[in-house]
TrEMBL record:
Belongs to the Tom22 family. It is a single-pass membrane protein. The chain crosses the membrane at residues 46-63. Its main location: mitochondrion. PANTHER family: MITOCHONDRIAL IMPORT RECEPTOR SUBUNIT TOM9-2 (PTHR46867). This is Mitochondrial import receptor subunit TOM22. Keywords: Membrane, Mitochondrion, Mitochondrion outer membrane, Protein transport, Receptor, Translocation, Transmembrane, Transmembrane helix, Transport. GO terms for cellular component: mitochondrial outer membrane. One of its GO terms (biological process) is protein transport. It holds the Pfam family Tom22. It comes from the Eukaryota.
């Protein structure tokens, strides 16, 4: 039985993995993966900040605007029932 050093496929594999093109490709792939990971992390942090800011600042404003619109509608209905022309004075 021959040793692993006599295997032609092992020799070809070693030659390929030691080639400069393979090394450059491996380095580029590693750098791309690292950049993608950092980009996803930053995007997640930005989404968290945007989401919580929306909940803290915009949602209460929307609720208050809806409440104000309901009050205007109620006043308009009350004025209509009392016979006053809608729209106030």
């Amino acid at each position: 039985m021959a040793g692993s050093g006599d295997n032609p496929l092992a020799k070809i594999g070693n030659t390929v993995t030691q080639s400069p093109l393979f090394q450059k490709s491996k380095r580029a792939l590693t750098n791309t993966a690292r950049f993608s990971q950092k980009l996803l992390w930053s995007t997640g942090k930005a989404a968290w900040i945007a989401g919580t800011s929306f909940l803290v600042f915009v949602v209460p404003l929307i609720i208050e605007m809806d409440r104000e619109q309901q009050m205007v509608d109620l006043e308009s209905q009350s004025a209509g029932l009392l016979g006053a022309p809608p729209g106030g004075l």
